[in-house]
Amino acid sequence: MAGIGFELRKLLRKDTLLGLLQAYVYAGVISSGPWVLSIVGILIVGALSHAVVEPNVLVTQFQVSVTYLIASSLILTGVLQLAFTRFISDRMFEHQENLVFSNLNGAFLVTFAAAGMFGLLCAMTLFSGFGVVYRILMLSGFVMLCGIWIATILLSGLKRYLAIVVLYASAYAIVVCLALLARPWGLEGLLAGFVVGQFVLLVGVWLLIARQFHSPQFISFDFLRKGVIFPSLMVIGLLYNLGVWADKIMFWFYPDTSTAIIGPLRASLIYDLPVFMAYIFIIPGMAVFLVRIETDFVEYYDRFYDAVRSGGSLTHIENMRDEMLYAIRQGLLEIGKIQMLAVLVAMVTGPAALKALGISELYLSLFYIQTVGASLQVGLLALLNVFFYLDQRRIVLNLCALFVLGNVLFTAMTLKMGAVWYGYGYCAATFLTLFVGLYLLDHKLGRLEYETFMLQ
Amino acid sequence: MSNEENFPKAADADIALLLESTFPYISGGVSSWVNQIIQAFPEIRFAVVFLGSRRKDYGNLKYALPDNVVHVETHYLYDDLSSHGVDVVSRPGDAAVFSRVGDLHDAFRRQGAVDLSAFDEVTARMMHGRNLTLKDFLHSEQSWAFITDSYRRFCTDPSFVDYFWTVRIMHQPLWKLTDIAKNMIPVRALHAVSTGYAGLLGALLARSRGLPLILSEHGIYTKERKIDLYQSEWIRDNRNPFQKDSSELSHFQTMWIHFFEWLGRICYDSADPIIALYEKNRLRQIEDGASEERTCNIPNGVNVGRLAALRERRGEKIPPVLCLIGRVVPIKDVKTFIRAMLILANRMPVVEGWIAGPVDEDPAYARECREFAENLGLGDRLQFLGFQQIEDLMPKIGVVVLTSISEALPLVILEGFAAGVPALTTDVGACRQLVYGLDEEDRALGAGGRVVGIANPEELADAAISLLKPDNWYAAQAAGIARVEKYYSDELMFDRYRAVYMRALNHACVPGADFAPMRCPFGG
């Protein structure tokens, strides 16, 4: 856990405005790097290709294809992401580093097999009318993305944020360059650029892990053994990713809000772009989240368990518990404040941005509410992270289930209620989950010493 | 018969012997005495209830079980202390019940006479799972509130985690005891051979089943535990150097001592008669809360006839051999004996020191002793013989030595006397009474050896030189033989215990017999 918190504290300790700013910028870059780079990369490819690729619909087809690849691969690997990361961090705790690399290869093999089968099935059925090249590119892109998510979350677990950002930046630079070069070949050309970029990224993360960890075997499957894998984490991973994507998928397949783009793939032009833009506006919140959780909270978290283990007085233990709670409250409050600012900025710049993207100003309110929802999602992410630190998997599981249910239910309601309400479903679902989560956290921390001592 | 599955089992028995960490797994004074008593009453069907710490702390049986032991059960109080962890869920706990537990603790904290009604209610709940199960203790919120409240009010050591685990480890075996009490086969009377956990088990059984409880105390349990606690390094002490006063016990040591004192109080309150080995201990029992009219002395006895035969096997000369007979454990202070041997080696060229007793009870201490002797360069003049049969040993030695810092009434001195071997002992337990005599008539028999202060190798060496002088030695031999024949024969002891047992068993036969004091058959 040292890595990132240490770096940030070093920057914060300078105790100057510049140091503070550096800390937050650093945190912002490393916490939101990967997905901002992906979104920006795809948007750039689209924007630069508009003039070259004919007809224009091919660009949209490219963007939608990639979006589907990302969404489906995230949801599919959600099953393994957290469970595998936990497996690795448990082994690291036991100083069994030699299991890391071989099990990563094992996880890759399992993921590739599952993703390959699922992808092949889709290619044979849903995409049966498409060209072989498109199908092969989609299939290979899908399989590689699945591998990339597994490796990325593993590296995040190891706090190698900077390395991740560097790798993503290089990979998406390659994606942009190759896609631009391959523009003459239309959809397949753009897609090929994307796939090659992902290949570079996959090899990059794999080499990064291979360089740090050595295993006596090349491949092993310890992570699948009963007792070392947490089924609850598999469900949590799946539910969280489902929860994040549920409203988007519903908008893609609700007739009033979507159009068919390519084969079975539909997109919601009115919903998707505001959503992606809204996600850009949560970078400051993510930065604050990382700084607060990885420095203040973790500091008191460590001190709490240190006091428990090494003979602190009960008053001291309770004080550390209170400080921990205070750090969480402060963190969430700061996320709230900075996101409030972000929403204001979104409101100011929104009209111009939408105009530039050629979207009707009718959807401005959708963009605003999406920004609010995404801001709440940062809070939720911070909260879930705290629960993970406290190893409260059951609570996280219930919250994720609530998030999925809420998102599906409220989004369905807003779809029925009409365009004015679009976006409110997602926002309400994150708000509800965050609210329930905060209540549970308060309750949980109130009895933290009791549970720490008596439930062992 | 070392396999626990081969132990005899019966549906009922006459007398249940409640034994803590002694017979049949540990050899030593108390265990030999238990063996002796069982064999002396072949007409009584005994159930043996052995309480140990952990199974792995004990080896095989050290005694063959006599035929009249019809039932044996063994229980290990500190086994699987931490084997829970599966399906641990929080539970509220019953506030009213924990408030009664609070009453019980308040009663313990007050000095003086104690009303044990809270004890009876609380243990009945523990025994029958009524809102005070082990899970309630380990996991309930009420239990947590109780523990934290007690910590805040009474704990003077800052470390909460140490307090918490002291409380847990201290109390968790109590649920095992209530379980044992609940499931034990029907018996007519109970005989606890110490206070402590065995005494508490006796009290639980006596109070819940209305059975008579006989208590025989060889040492004084709480005193022995205090010695253990003084020496223990596993009990944490978190006071800083300014707060620390080495003459003062740490809070956790004090907690343990109070705990054992209360186990004793409860047992004294429930037992009748309360039998001490000798007067000093009887007075101590009264001081510790035993009511005087229930107490009495029954000293140990040895089979004088059998041991007298060993006198014939002695050679002409007095063997220049000082033999410490006892387990090699810290309480026997073997190192003082080794130091005295070094002094003697310089002053008496021929004298040898033997240490006869098992070394497996505290292997680390035994190793220390060996290394100590080697470092002093004692060579062959000091030998560790391991466990020895008394019959083989006695004819070969000149003096029975005891350097213990604590003893009760050591049988080995009496065995030595009967076999014609004088004794050289520290002034502990009944040793002075055995060597010099108790009353006027007894003292007139003369000194059966020498008594010296504890941890004093110089004095021990001087006394050994004096005792080994033929005139002194023969006088001591004669005095020892006379004393053991007159006061400490096993027939005398058996007669007295026969009376105790008969009273208890008859008492148990009378329907509706109340728990009135039975009166000890022998005065002081």
UniProtKB/TrEMBL annotation, chain A:
Q: Does the keyword Secreted apply?
A: no
Q: Which UniProt keywords apply?
A: Membrane, Transmembrane, Transmembrane helix
Origin superkingdom:
Bacteria
The answer, when asked if Nucleotidyltransferase is one of the entry's keywords, is: no
InterPro entries in alphabetical order: PelG
Could you list the residue ranges that cross the membrane?
21-48, 68-88, 100-127, 133-155, 162-183, 189-209, 229-253, 273-293, 338-359, 365-388, 395-415, 421-441
This one is known as: Exopolysaccharide Pel transporter PelG
Tell me what organism the protein belongs to.
Uliginosibacterium flavum
Q: Which gene encodes it?
A: pelG
From TrEMBL, chain B:
One Pfam family per UniProt: Glyco_trans_1_4
Residues forming coiled coils: none
Q: Which SUPFAM superfamilies match?
A: UDP-Glycosyltransferase/glycogen phosphorylase (SSF53756)
What region holds the DUF3492 domain?
Answer: 13-293
**Gene3D superfamilies annotated for this entry?**
Glycogen Phosphorylase B (3.40.50.2000)
**Record's protein name:** GT4 family glycosyltransferase PelF
Organism, by scientific name, is Uliginosibacterium flavum
